[in-house]
Amino acid sequence: MPFAQLLVRLAYRQQASAPYARLKGFFHKLLTDPRSHRRVLFDSFMIILVLVSVMLLIYEVRRPLGPWSDTFEIFVVIVFVSEYLLRMWLYNDSHKILIEHWEKAELMGLPFRPGPALWAVLRRKLSYMTSPMAIIDLLAILPSYRPLRFLRLFLLFRLLKLFRYARNLNAFGQVLVEKRFELYTLSFFVGSVLLIATVAIYLFEAEAPESRIQTLMDALYWAAITLTTVGYGDIVPVTTEGRVVAMVLVFAGIGVISFATSIVVMAFHEKMRELRDNRVYGEVERQSDITIVCGYGRIGQVVAERLSSAGDAFVIIDKNADSVELARRQGYLAVAGDSTDGALLANLGLGRQATRILCLTHDDVSNVYITLTARQVAPDILIVSRANKAETVRKLMQAGATHVVRPYEVVARMASEFIGQPVAFDALYDVVTRAAGVHLEPLAIHAGDWLEKQRIGEIDFTAHHLLLFGVIRPDTSPSADGHARYDLAGRHFYFNPGADLLLRAGDILMLIGYQASLSQFREVASRGWKRNRVKK
Amino acid sequence: MEKKQGEKMIPRYALFGCNPLAIEVAWRLSMVKLPFVMLDRDESLVKQARDEGLSAEHLDYTDDDALRTVGIGSHIEGVFCLLREDSENVFLAISARALDAALRIVAVCQAPEAAAKLLAAGSDKVVDPYEISGARVHELIERPEVVELMEQTVFGLQDLNIAEVTIPTGSWVHGVHLSQLRKHMTQNILLLGVVDLERGKDLIFSTRGIDHNLDFNDVLVVIGPQSEVADFQRMIESDSAPATKDLALTR
User: Fold this and answer.
1) Has residue A296 got a pLDDT over 80?
2) What is the pLDDT of residues B218-236, one digit of tens each?
3) Is the pLDDT at A534 greater than 70, yes or no?
4) What share of chain B in percent tops pLDDT 70?
5) pLDDT tens-place string over residues B119-177
6) What DSSP element (H or E) covers B219?
7) CA-CA distances (angstroms) from residue B57 to A298, B14, B16?
8) Of the candidates A282, A284, A308, A311, the residue with the CA atom closest to the CA atom of residue A296
9) pTM of the entire structure?
10) Backbone torsions φ then ψ of B29, nearest 5 degrees
11) pLDDT of residue B89
12) What is the DSSP letter of B206?
């Protein structure tokens, strides 16, 4: 059928079309993308529009406004209608449905029938139109038709539209949806109590001549006002039996109100936590390079503080809600949860932005598990893990940890080194940890640097206020003789090399000096050839 | 540390506490061949340490006489306060310091607030296990090459160590400037700097602009292999400067 072919061709053309995709992308960013900044602007504009239009319509109930208000109303309606149509368009890609049907037909060897395909497209759009927000949107367009007074009710639907734009209000709506089982139970319970109370008070009061309760509607109204402990006082029981009913209802009411309040509070509490977590996820997404810190115990706290001073982005996970609260109070991004949960780690950037992960929980088993998970998902990530027992070190390395830190070992090493020569140890420790102004820094030599092919003796380190601790060289290079050599993993370290050591590309100079001297030397080194060959 | 051919080496260091942390420290000391004895009030812990092959004794640290018997005030040069509670370590530090003003005392603290108290009690160094573990984790992230280098060489078991060489009275070095000393250095060591205890505990870095005038009791901080350091020490301790070598040899 030529029509069918035309349809399919159109669908494919639409799919391939870049301008179409760009246009749709633009509107998606404007209307529906949760992370887009443009959307925030659009939402704000819509909120203001809704509020202003509602205010004008309310004002007009008693005082007529000039023709400009009609123009404004038309403008608002046009905006709402366009938005409705755009959202319907953005809801899904219809051409995808057509293509899917076509390809299925091709696969099965059946003839392609456009009828069912078009019906599928229509059904999808209908499912959008029957969603609650879409219905609200549709009804919100109506109030403009003034002659029908009852339509003023639909003004409320405009206010309900606000739920879509304000994310926190949206959360409120979600709470209602999520807790609907509890809310049904509550409604049923309240309904039954009301029914009994209504009937009871009507039976006792309706015949009494002075009573204000004449109809069932009066009785129901009174029961509702009393049950919720509002008690306007416009209707009061006059008979003794009626008063008894009132007393019982009041006490029942207290119970009902407490029940309802507790449900709502609990629901909101959970929702708030979820919202806060979502905000953390959003913040994490925005970073290009983040460190995940699993565990906010004493060690986690120390690391977080240092990362924060260094200006590195990081996010903390801890099982304990109090620890998370502590972290948040410091201004750190933190999420309460189980660090071994792969989904949580993925949400926090594992496999994408997370370049490092620190397993600092108290439990060796968890640390091993997190290490393994992280290494599997992100083969290049840097993993530093804590180990409590000595045997765990090997397991962690096997699981893929880059470095392992064992607190007792660190203490033992420090204590035993210090006790031998306290002054020297403190001096060197300060250098290593950059506690004093003197730092130990590596400077790599690349091919083409002026340092390449220099001899040690030709570089005046003293004039630069630097000490050359030594040179690290990969052990694949031929070794140099006549210098004190030490073995590192896969590399050699030439300590305090003699003047005749020839530097090569790939060497790393380990220099000791003040930050300023090091920076200056680094700059000089990168400047290039022949500029600074200073003979002693 | 251990019975070597039937004779017991005299311990120079006393470790108070036979808990897992203390055992870790003990193994480390035995690796670097420093003779020590482990002490605890609790007999069962002492026995556990002995079962592991470590030299351990039962001792009540609250008893000053017992402390004197074990050697504090005489042959013990350093004390490790590794007891479980901060209050116990504080008490021990005060007791030990009172018995020997020159003793080196290293204490471990549980709560960060205890660090100041331990220092006030007389400790030379307080180690907060979490603080330094956290610092180490951060170092491994920021400067892994530096950490690895230090681990494997200076703080490892290869023959490259830090050393302090105190300038004794009568040395030719007294009155000499730091830069002049460097010219006399022929040993394969690195002179990191000097600590002038009169000026405080900070290291005066050797290639800083200031050329420090060396005094008696200044402490030179050097890095190098054992033999070279010993040679340097001999040179410092002699009362006359070595024959001036060719300047071209030095750097």
Assistant:
1) yes
2) 888 888 888 888 888 888 8
3) no
4) 92
5) 999 998 999 999 989 999 998 998 888 888 888 777 777 788 888 888 888 888 888 88
6) strand B219-224
7) 33, 10, 10
8) A308
9) 0.70
10) -65, -40
11) 94
12) T
* ipTM value: 0.84
Which tokens sit at B83? Answer: 């007891």
pLDDT at B4: 46
List Cα–Cα distances, A75 to A53, A85, A159, A288, in angstroms. Answer: 10, 15, 17, 42
User: Locate tokens 């009362």: which residue?
Assistant: B239
CA B235 – CA B225 distance, rounded (Å) = 16
Q: How many residues make up chain B in this entry? A: 251
- Whole-angstrom distance, CA of residue A348 vs CA of residue A474: 36
β-strands A484-488, A491-495 pairing: antiparallel
Res A149: pLDDT? 65
**Contacts (Cβ under 8 Å, ≥6 apart) of B67:** B59, B61, B73, B95, B96, B99
The dihedral of CA B93, B94, B95, B96: what is its sign? positive
- In the predicted model, is pLDDT for residue A358 greater than 90? yes
Q: Using one digit for the tens of pLDDT, what is the confidence trace for B172-181?
A: 888 888 777 8
The H or E element that residue A500 is part of is none
Q: Which of residues 450-489 of A touch B (CB under 8 A)?
A: 456-457, 461-462, 465-467, 469-470, 472, 484, 486-489
Query: Considering only alpha carbons, which residue of chain A is nearest residue B189?
Result: A496
pLDDT bucket at A535, cuts 50 / 70 / 90: very low
Using the structure block, give the residue that is written with the tokens 């301008």. A19
Q: Which helix (H) or strand (E) holds A405?
A: strand A403-405
Q: How far apart are CA A366 and CA A363, in angstroms?
A: 5
Any bridge partners for residue A392, and if so which? none
Please name the member of A297, A416, A461 whose beta carbon is closest to the beta carbon of B32: A416
What's the whole-number mean pLDDT along residues A291-314? 93
**A415: contact with B, CB 8 A cutoff:** yes
Strand-pairing partners, residue A334, are: A316
- For residues A469 and B147, what is the distance between their CA atoms, to the nearest angstrom? 14
CA distance B51 to A99: 77
- What torsion, rounded to 10 degrees, do the Cα atoms A256, A262, A264, A265 define? 150
| Amino acid B79: pLDDT | 93
Burial class (CB in 10 A: 0-12, 13-18, 19+), A85: exposed
Pairing mode of beta strands B219-224, B190-195: antiparallel
Tell whether the model's pLDDT for residue A536 goes beyond 50. no
Cβ neighbours, 10 Å, residue B71: 18
Measured between its terminal Cα atoms, the distance across chain A in Å is 92
Residue in B89, B142, B251 to test binding to A, most A beta-carbons within 10 Å:
B251
Q: Are residues A387 and A320 in contact, defined by beta-carbon separation less than 8 angstroms?
A: no
Tokens matching residue A449: 């640097």
Measured in angstroms, the CA of B25 and the nearest CA of chain A are apart by: 4
> What are the backbone angles phi and psi of residue B51, rounded to the nearest 5°?
-60, -30
Judge contact between A379 and A354, C-beta under 8 A.
Answer: no
pLDDT value at A405 more than 90: yes
Q: How many Cβ pairs closer than 8 A exist between chain A and B?
A: 219
Q: What is the mean pLDDT of residues A462-470?
A: 86
Determine the pLDDT at residue A483.
77
Q: Which residues on B lie below 8 Å from A297 (Cβ)?
A: 130
Selected residue of B1, B23, B109, B138 to mutate for chain A interface (largest A Cβ count, 10 A): B138
Residue A247, both tokens: 């007393």
Q: Using CA atoms, how far apart are residues A180 and A261, in angstroms rounded to an integer? A: 14
CB contact under 8 A, B144 and A415: no
The confidence band for A102, taking pLDDT boundaries of 50, 70 and 90, is confident
- Asked if residue A513 lies in contact with residue A466, where contact means CB atoms within 8 angstroms, the answer is yes
More confident: A180 or B110: B110
In this model, does residue A532 exceed pLDDT 70? no
Q: How far apart are CA A316 and CA A307, in angstroms?
A: 11
